[in-house]
Amino acid sequence: MKVTTVTAAEAAARLTQHNDILILTHRRPDGDTLGSAHALCRLLRQKGLRAFLHHNEDATPRLAPLLDGLTAPQGFEPHFVVAVDIASEDLFLASCDVYRGKVDLCIDHHPSNTGYAREVLLDGQAAATGELIWTLAGLLGLAPGREAMHALYIAVATDTGCFCFSNTTPLAHRIAADCIEAGVDVHAVNREFFERKSHARFQIERRLFDTLRFYENNRVAAAVLERDFAESVGASGDDLDNLSTLIMQLDGVECAILLQELPQRGEYKVSLRTQKPLNASSICAAFGGGGHARAAGCTVRGDAVQCRDMLAREAVRQMEMPC
Amino acid sequence: MKVTTVTAAEAAARLTQHNDILILTHRRPDGDTLGSAHALCRLLRQKGLRAFLHHNEDATPRLAPLLDGLTAPQGFEPHFVVAVDIASEDLFLASCDVYRGKVDLCIDHHPSNTGYAREVLLDGQAAATGELIWTLAGLLGLAPGREAMHALYIAVATDTGCFCFSNTTPLAHRIAADCIEAGVDVHAVNREFFERKSHARFQIERRLFDTLRFYENNRVAAAVLERDFAESVGASGDDLDNLSTLIMQLDGVECAILLQELPQRGEYKVSLRTQKPLNASSICAAFGGGGHARAAGCTVRGDAVQCRDMLAREAVRQMEMPC
Question: What are the start-end ranges of the E strands in chain A?
Fold first, then answer.
């Protein structure tokens, strides 16, 4: 499919030219894909359109409420399919495979977007896809309601690590200011996503630090989280979020790698974060993955220690390449 | 001294009616007192006034740069003394004792301000004193330079825990947005204050969690950090910052108490944080301290375990009081 890049104004026009809209989110969804999708759904309904979210069975307990009341009923036939915050069809849920090659519009902020949709609204500088949805609201002539603002706050706050990561933009802060003024209980969101740690989470963090492995003079740090351990402490999906960010905090670390064992034994979801100038997306691309310059992912299979060492070696190799 | 509350406009007028201004900051200074003082000093100099910061010998390595080049020369005789972010003369440095009863203007955001200055600009709703300085900049007809903006970013970001705590306001976010647009390297600040953890810090955190004591069904959590342990891991002042925030993260905890042993053995600086509706300032007031509703402090003397239990008992007592 030939992909066309559209402006925000064109995307807004496209959305209002159709009805019966289905909005897709990515597998192992984060606050941005679900928050942005929820907000977009509400905005389209404010415009009098019929819009629904495709159900997302991967949604963790703290994100699942973003789907409530908006998911497509059985037998719904969409006339327009929108993918939100999805960089590639490889990140589709299995239940969304039927829409491969059939996405009309993708709204995204990942520079690694593969251009799988017929048209794409892409801003690689945006802190979150939520910024694009906020911009679309203005172009649609809408003042988002409180629920849409609550969802947008989740989108921008989670993707910026509560306005802390290097991708934080002035717009992300201004959206947050508007959300507070719109009556969104941002502290409840902050507490849930950034402050509250379950006892299981604490045990996971301690495990990680007890088993962390360093390479290249402490510049690369990598850890493996085995499924057996996670289950033994009763960790939920939310407890396993953002662990690579934690490893990244260690003084001197320029590349943090977390291998998290998936349900299929011997398969690991990799979360990788970097400091400038190292490019996380480039490192993950070597293993068929991708993402952003400072945060990316991939999936690897094999022996945990060998995979961990392999990823660390690639990080070191790219560190030594001339910029 | 009879204290008069002034508006921001009156404070701005007062500042420009005088020259040879000395700006005081509190002992064990945080990002808000030093960041706000630095910004105010630069703004007054932009107005063509002679303004200096009183040296602050308690400044930790990561905050000390805020004093560089702005401290009062030996023999400087101020004609106007301004206290920034200081709630009480009890929080004066010993070297500032000479200014007790002599502060002309206090600019602060602590509801517990004791009214020790001749005039006070007080906004108990502000996320940080930095917001007041930013407002003063506008009233003084100034666009703050990048260094002032950098200092203001430190002020608002640290006092809100990187826009995470419940005191975060729309204005704090908008100041941050302006700072990013003014070219402040906010990520360098975020990394230094919120992301980077020294290896000493990690050991301190693990010690805390290994020795944490719970009360009242896990609703109160308290820990003691002995000076010997802190010294044994080579912890600096910066490594010991915000530890009570960490304890507060544990699921179910409504009051987090940290006792940190001071140089005088048997004396402890207490940092106490609460969830609504429990009032941290009220709990600390029972021991001669104060602060904000969600974060406050005091100093206690005696046996560590007894002090810890005493503080926890007061927290529980106030929990059980009808609201």
Answer: 4-5, 21-24, 51-53, 80-84, 105-108, 119-122, 213-215, 220-225, 255-261, 267-274, 290-291, 295-301
Cα–Cα dist A320/A195, whole Å: 37
Element (H, E) at A16: helix A8-16
Three-class secondary structure assignment of B63-109:
CHHHCCCCECCCCCCCCEEEEECCCCHHHCCHHHHHHCCCCCEEEEC
Structure tokens at B268: 């402890």
* Nearest CA distance, B172 vs chain A (angstrom): 8
CA distance B137 to chain A (A): 20
Q: Tell me how far apart the alpha carbons of residues A318 and A278 are, in angstroms, rounded to a whole number.
A: 7
> What separation in angstroms does the CA of B125 have from each of A73, B109, B111?
46, 7, 8
CA distance A200 to A235: 5
Q: b/e per residue, B123-139, with b = 16+ CB within 10 A?
A: beebbbbbbbbbbbbeb
pLDDT per position as a tens digit, B159-193: 999 999 999 999 999 999 999 999 999 999 998 99
A173 at interface of B, judged by CB pairs closer than 8 A: yes
Separation CA A289–CA A28 (nearest Å): 15
Asked whether the ipTM of the predicted complex exceeds the cut of 0.90, the reply is no
Residue entry with tokens 């030594």: A320
**Which residues, in sequence order, are bridge partners of residue A4?**
A119
Give Cβ neighbours of residue A3 (< 8 Å, ≥ 6 apart).
A115, A116, A117, A118, A119, A120
Q: Which of A292, A25, A269, A312 is nearest to A161 (CA)?
A: A292
Cβ neighbours of B140 (radius 10 Å): 18
Contact A165 B206 (CB under 8 A): no
Could you tell me the two tokens for A148? 């849409």
Cα(B318)–Cα(A158) distance, integer angstroms: 34
Integer Cα distance of A171 and B313 in angstroms: 45
* Contact (CB<8Å) A173/B171: no
B5 touches chain A (CB under 8 A): no
Q: What are the C-alpha distances in Å from B305 to residues A222, B217, B248?
A: 38, 19, 19
CB contact under 8 A, A166 and B176: no
pTM of the model: 0.85
Residues of B in contact with A162 (CB under 8 A): 162-164
Contacts of B202 in chain A (CB under 8 A): 209, 250
* Strand (E) or helix (H) holding B291: strand B290-291
Instruction: Tell me the per-residue pLDDT of B46-84, one tens digit each, with 9 for 90 and over.
Output: 999 999 999 999 999 999 999 999 999 999 999 999 999
DSSP conformation class of A191: I
Is residue B174 within 8 A of residue B156, CB to CB? The reply is: no
Q: Does B188 touch chain A (CB under 8 A)?
A: no
C-alpha to C-alpha distance for B139 and B134, rounded to whole angstroms: 9
Helix (H, G, I), strand (E, B) or coil at B4: strand
Q: How far apart are CA A241 and CA A32, in angstroms?
A: 13
**Residue of A15, A4, A24 whose CA lies nearest to A136:** A15
For A63, A173, B172, the CA distances from A124, given in Å and listed in that order, are: 24, 17, 26
Residue A291: other Cβ atoms inside 10 A: 23
